[in-house]
Request: fold
Amino acid sequence: MRILLLGANGQLASDILRLWRDQPGIDLLPATRAGADVTDLAAVRALVERTRPGVVINTTAFHNLPLCEQDPATAMTVNVVGGWNVATAAREAGAAVVQFSTDYVFDGEKRTPYLESDARRAVNIYGAAKIATEDAVRIANPDHLIVRVSGLYGLAGSAGKGGNFVETMLRLAREGQPIRVIADQVTAPTNTAHIAEALLPHLRDGLRGTVHLAADGETSWYDFARAIFELRGLSPDCQPTTAAEFGGPVRRPAYSVLGSERVPRLPHWRLGLERYLREKHGPLS
Ligand SMILES: NC(=O)c1ccc[n+]([C@@H]2O[C@H](COP(=O)([O-])OP(=O)(O)OC[C@H]3O[C@@H](n4cnc5c(N)ncnc54)[C@H](OP(=O)(O)O)[C@@H]3O)[C@@H](O)[C@H]2O)c1
Reply:
C-alpha cells in the first residue's frame, strides 16, 4: 500500500511514521507544509500526481481553539478547504482519503460515549469547521475514511498547540506553581501511538466511512493530571476547578468520550499514559 502522509511533522503523523515505517507492504511517503500547503489545490494535486499514492492521509489541521475563535476564516480555510483539496486530489488520482476529525463535533450533552451515528452539533468554531470538513471530504471523495479522535498526546507534541497536556502538567509541577485543572470536562485522552497501531489493520481491511478511534475508559482533565503526577512520583499542589471558574474564550463540550459501534476501542487511557511516560521519560515511579 503506497500512502502519502500529509502533516508529517505533527504529533499523530510522527507516530504513524515511527510505527508504520517498517511494516510489511507499506510504502510511506511523508509530506510537510513545504511539500504542499493543503489550502493550495494546485500544489496538493501536483504532490499527489507526483507520488501516485493509493491512500492519502490528511493529519493537517488548524486546531488551536482560541485562535479558531479569533480567526474563523483561517479555521475554515485550513480545515474545510484543505480537507476538500486533499480529498479532491486523491479522488482525481484514484486514491482513497483518510481524514482526521474530532470529538468536538459533538455538543457534550450525552453522558454515555458518542457513537459514529450520533448527531453532530458543535459548540465552538473548531468543532463547526471539523463538521464542515467531514462533509466536504464525503462530498469530494466517496472512497474516504473519517477518523474521529480525542485528546491527543504523542512523543512529538502537537505542532499546532505547542506541546501537549502531559508535558504542560509536568512543566507546571517542575516550576512548583499551584496547578488548577478543569474537573467538569470528561473525555478519553488518547496516546497517538495507539491510534497509529489500530489504524493500520483497519486500512489493510479496507475500512471506510466514519469511525471513532479513542482510548477506552473516560476521565476528567483533573483526574488525568493526577494520574500523570502519580505515575511520575510527583505531588504538586493540584486542585480541581470548573470550566466556568477557569474561564477562557472557548466553550468546550462537557462530555466528549468516543465509543464505537464499528470497531473495538483502543487500550484504556491509563495504559496509553503509562506507555507515553515510559517512552518519553523512562521507568515509572
Ligand atoms: N491534538 C488533539 O488533541 C486533537 C484532538 C482531536 C482531533 N485532532 C485532530 O487530529 C489530527 C492530528 O492532530 P495533531 O495533534 O497531530 O496535529 P499537529 O501536531 O498540530 O500537526 C498538524 C500538522 O498540520 C500541518 N499543517 C497545518 N496547516 C497546514 C497547511 N495549511 N498545509 C500543510 N500542512 C499544514 C502542521 O504543519 P506546521 O508544523 O508546518 O504548522 C502540522 O505539522 C488533526 O486533524 C486534528 O484536528 C487532534
Observations:
- The CA atoms of residues 7 and 13 lie 6 Å apart.
- The domain at 2-155+190-217+257-268 is CATH 3.40.50.720 (Rossmann fold).
